[in-house]
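Methods, example record. To illustrate the input and output format used throughout this study, we show the complete record for YvbH-like protein. The sequence lines were provided to the predictor; the line carrying structure tokens was produced by it.
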Amino acid sequence: MFKKLASDALGLSDIGKVIEPQDYDKTESDDYVLYEKGEKIYFIIKTKADEYCFTNYALVHVDGDSALSKKRTLKRYDYKYHPIRYVSLETAGTIDLDVEIKFEIGGIPFSIDINKSYADKIRDLYKSLVTIEQIMRDNEKHRSNMLDSIDSAQKTLSSNGFSQGQSPAESYKAITEFTHTWLKNMSDTYSNSDFGHVFDLFIKN
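The corresponding predicted structure is encoded as:
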């Protein structure tokens, strides 16, 4: 008994396992998924203290203070507002008991140890997160180019003066409305909120 408590206190027993789809409803994170808005669970890792629930919209983290405490804090990281970066996977050595997946989401670092018996499943999650990171980086580049384009267009309009037949106020209003609409359309094009298509590609539930 003492050995078990010491192991829990030191975090030595906090190696995660992958939850099967038929058991999602037995997890805490399942209660906080926005099913009403079309959110779907694709992957859950459960440790003694935490749950890491990957949906098409977000990472839902049920954060435990320690393996000995029942207190939990719910943290939600929507992909639309929290970009994924620096995804890596540390595979198990000969005597290792676990594999480790690492990433940042919204600048918050995560490092999750998982029993190496789930190595194949973790590879699928790794591929999904890497692909999402690539899409996010491409979108960021497109948004930067978009802002450069609108800046160039505004400078051209300013140098050519206002449109003939329109007052300065009318021209300014037309340019402002066009710019707002154009930026919104481009932002919607290069800002993903739903990555279900990526998870579907690699994870077969």
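Annotations derived from this record:
The radius of gyration is 23 Å.
The longest helix spans residues 119-160.
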